[in-house]
What does this fold into?
Amino acid sequence: MLESRVLVSDFYHGTAAIEVDWQADRASIAWRSAIDDDRHADDLNALMATPIVRGEHLYGVAGNGELRCLKLADGSFVWRDLTPTGERPAFFATAFLVPAGDRCWLFNDQGALILAKLSPEGYDELGRMQLLEPTGFARGRNIVWSHPAFADRCCFARNDKEIVCVDLSAG
It folds into this structure.
């Protein structure tokens, strides 16, 4: 029963789905990443951004910056895409995912706000806007590691030097 699952994920151990029996105060592991795969090539080892669930699939950014889709039922790999974070893998590259109806806002660590559709078929980018310059520094690259906030059809985002408010309402 997918509604009774709690997902946990980390950079070193990957992801596990915990099946919770609320009536019996009991829990068990429904599935977990392969322990012997320290590269996490086909699972999700989320680092900073919280993965999201859409229907029967899990979407999140792996520790190397790839947006990945897994089947929620068994954790099996569906697809990967580097488009939201860059053209090549980079340790600790990330994008914060914020569901919005049938779409998703992604704010990447390079300061870009992206509107996309996420589905089992793949990543479909609808638009992108650079909001901020990355002013922090980690792992050999400039970064913005702050989660955006959304209120009243606006996006609020910050780096280490400024905060911006962007109106997202339709013209």
Remarks:
- The chain has one domain: 2-146.
- The first strand starts at residue 5 and ends at 10.
